[in-house]
Design brief:
Chain lengths: 178, 227
């Protein structure tokens, strides 16, 4: 420093200030910026919840208003405990069975099969009416899964019914066999 | 031979423009982001392949915990406060201004209305610490079904406020946010409560199931349909 001063004095007497670079390394700042952008982008889209629409019939005490489904058009699915799904077709001599519903895909063959039969008989697969009945021990996710399967298999007509004595009689035998 | 001199370019790039863009976007996302408020109960949502989105505003969400407790949530503050006042009138519960103010900030709750004033007197931290018992709903006695009244009065408030122009709403949307492991009868009770109020169309909130299933399932459905 002392040398510099001496040199300056020896020159034309002008004082020279040291020039510092005005450039700042912006890279970390950009990193931070993009990190935060990523966070906010993900947070925004994720907070918008997914939903599924459910229409239920208006409540009525009048039995005349209740829809009666023809046996040959119906498929009854019963949601039971331990992710088991029972199904039956017809009432007089029912065709009963069950599938493991922990993989909701497992029910698809039954629905497609039934759709095909209804199509053969009635000429339109949309004539099929799926009646969903949930036992008290079934979990809500089973219900969501089966409603989801309804849209996957493009079943247009389905309803949530009440699990009754008749239903438990029908699936009683198969529960015993298990 | 003369030596070819390579011109040495500077390796540093001017980052200023990039910073500008980054922070512009950051500001945008920060302002548009909506944060989820702390929920009084954890709900493990079931998965579905439905791609429908719930509207962002004017929703009434009924959360159902794993043990069947029901929590009530209305996103619009004005509707929420109005509903509280109407409920207070119906059940003869009075609220202080402070409690009303506190309620307008509380997104979700699940206590019988008689306990609501004492819940509102607590600080948010204290509130998170206690276990809320859920909104009572007794489907056998419609006079004592508080959930039914909450839902009904929220709809009425929404209608009143939107017709007077105080809020913009095309009718409140009702959604059930149930835990996947809750037993069906609890859900059934809520659905029945809604049906009693002639609400026959509502949403079930789910999470999106793994994208792998989407492609696999639908082509199969079409194949079957062609047969």
């Amino acid at each position: 420093m002392a040398d510099m001063e001496v040199a300056d004095k020896g020159g034309d007497g002008k004082k020279r200030s040291k020039k510092l670079s005005t450039k700042v390394d912006m890279t970390p700042m950009v990193d931070l910026g993009f990190l935060l952008i990523t966070f906010f982008m993900l947070a925004t889209t994720l907070s918008k919840p997914q939903a599924m629409e459910l229409n239920v019939p208006a409540k009525t005490d009048d039995t005349l208003d209740q829809t009666v489904v023809k046996e040959s058009k119906a498929l009854t699915l019963i949601l039971a405990y331990n992710d088991t799904l029972y199904y039956y077709i017809g009432i007089e001599e029912p065709e009963v069975g069950f599938v493991d519903f922990s993989q909701s895909k497992n029910v698809e063959p039954i629905i497609y099969d039934r759709q095909k039969k209804v199509q053969e008989q009635w000429g339109d697969k949309d004539e099929l009416v799926v009646v969903i009945k949930a036992m008290a021990a079934s979990k809500y996710k089973n219900l969501v899964n089966i409603l989801d399967e309804m849209s996957i298999t493009q079943t247009k007509r389905y309803a949530i019914g009440e699990f009754t004595e008749v239903d438990s009689m029908i699936i009683y035998d198969i529960i015993q066999e298990e | 031979m003369p030596k070819i001199k390579m011109k040495r370019g500077s390796s540093s790039i001017d980052m200023t423009a990039m910073t500008d863009v980054a922070f512009l976007l950051l500001t945008f996302f920060m302002l548009t982001a909506k944060f989820r408020a702390a929920e009084p109960v954890a709900v493990d949502l079931p998965a579905s392949r439905s791609e429908l989105k719930l509207p962002e505003s004017n929703v009434l969400i009924l959360s159902i915990a794993k043990d069947g407790r029901v929590f009530f949530h209305v996103d619009n503050q004005k509707v929420r406060v109005n509903t509280l006042l109407e409920m207070g009138k119906l059940y003869n519960v009075t609220f202080t201004d402070g409690q009303i103010q506190e309620f307008s900030l509380m997104e979700s709750f699940g206590v019988p209305i008689a306990q609501l004033p004492s819940l509102l007197d607590k600080t948010p931290d204290e509130r998170n610490a206690i276990v809320q018992s859920g909104i009572p709903m007794d489907t056998t006695d419609s006079k004592r079904n508080e959930l039914s009244d909450w839902v009904h009065l929220a709809r009425v408030s929404d209608l009143q406020l939107s017709s007077s122009g105080e809020i913009e709403s095309k009718g409140i949307r009702i959604a059930i946010r149930g835990d996947g492991f809750v037993e069906y009868p609890y859900i059934e009770k809520v659905i029945e409560t809604l049906q009693d109020r002639k609400i026959n169309k509502f949403n079930l909130i789910t999470t999106l199931k793994g994208a792998a299933g989407i492609g696999g399932a639908n082509p199969g459905a079409e194949e079957e349909a062609d047969e």
